[in-house]
Amino acid sequence: MTPHIEAKKEDIAKTVIMPGDPLRAKFIAENYLDDYKLVNKVRGMYAYTGFYKGKRVTVMASGMGIASIGIYSYELFKFYDVDNIIRIGSCGSYTDKINVYDIILVKESYSLSTYALSQNGYAKNIIEADLSLNNHIKDIALKNNINLIEGRIHCSDVFYSDVKDVYDLYNNQKCLGVEMESFGLFHNAKSLNKKASCILTVTDNVVTKEEIDAKKRETTLIDMIKLALESL
Q: Per-domain residue ranges for the chain?
C-alpha cells in the first residue's frame, strides 16, 4: 500500500488501463469486465481489477494533469510491479483535418512541463511512447477495423491558457492536439524501464469548435476502450 493506493500488491494486474476520469473506470469495469472488484477508492480514484476475455486487467483512474498521473503511474510501476500502462483519454484537436471521435495513438509527447526535470533531471521536451506496445496496439486496431491516427501530442500543464499558440504548436512542433497526462506517464515508464502507451479520442476541436459534452465523454468512447482491452 502507498499513500495514494490502498490495494494490496496482488490486487493489481500487470497491465493497467488508465482513464483520467474515475467514472470512466467505473463504466469500463461494469460494462466490460468479469468478476471485477473495487481495489482502490482513496481520494475517489477508483481502481477495479477483473477479467476481460479471460485476461486479468486493472482499470484505474489517473485524475487530471501530469502531476496526478505522475503519482499514480509511478506508484503502480515502482511499488506494484505493473509492467504496462495504457492511458485512454480525451484530447482536443489542433487541426480541422482531425475530427471529433477520431482516435489518436500517441507516438511522442511534447511538453514544456518541468515534471521530468524535477523528477530525475530529464531536460528534453519530447518523450516517446513504448514502440513495441504501440506496434502491438496498431496490430490490434487493424484486426478490429479501428482507424488510428499516429503522431505527436501536446501535453499541457494548463487547461485554460491565454497564450494563443495553437497554430504554432501544430505547424512548428507537429502536435496533432492537446491533452494533459502523457508526458508524465511516458517519463515514469522510461525512468523505471516499463512500457506505456496513450490512446486518445478527440472530444473537441479548437479550430472548428466542435465538441462532445461531458456526459457523452463518460460513455461513448467505445472504440478506444475496446482497442485498449483487446490489446491485452
A: 9-230
Report CA-CA distances (Å) from 53 to 29, 50, 88, 196: 13, 10, 19, 22
- What CATH number labels 9-230? 3.40.50.1580
Question: Is residue 13 scored above 80 in pLDDT?
Answer: yes
Q: What is the pLDDT of residue 164?
A: 64
Q: Is the pLDDT of residue 167 over 70?
A: no
Characterise 65 by phi-psi region: left (phi > 0), alpha (psi -120 to 50), beta (else).
left
Phi and psi (nearest 5°) for 139? -65, -45
What does the alpha-carbon distance between residue 138 and residue 164 come to, in Å, rounded to a whole number? Answer: 33
- The predicted model gives 98-119 an average pLDDT of 96
pTM attached to this predicted model: 0.94
Beta carbons of 80 and 92 less than 8 angstroms apart? no
Q: Identify the three-state secondary structure at position 145.
A: coil
- Sequence-ordered strand ranges (E) for the chain: 15-19, 34-40, 47-52, 55-60, 84-93, 103-110, 126-128, 149-155, 175-179, 195-205
Model confidence over 61-75: pLDDT tens digits?
A: 999 999 999 999 999
**Range name among 45-59, 137-151, 212-226 with the lowest pLDDT average:** 212-226
| Cβ-contact 60, 46 below 8 angstroms | yes
The residues carrying an active-site annotation are 204
Beta strand pairing status for 15-19 and 84-93?
parallel
Backbone angles phi, psi at 200, to 5 degrees: -125, 140
Q: What is the DSSP string of 152-172?
A: EEEE-S-SS-----HHHHHHT
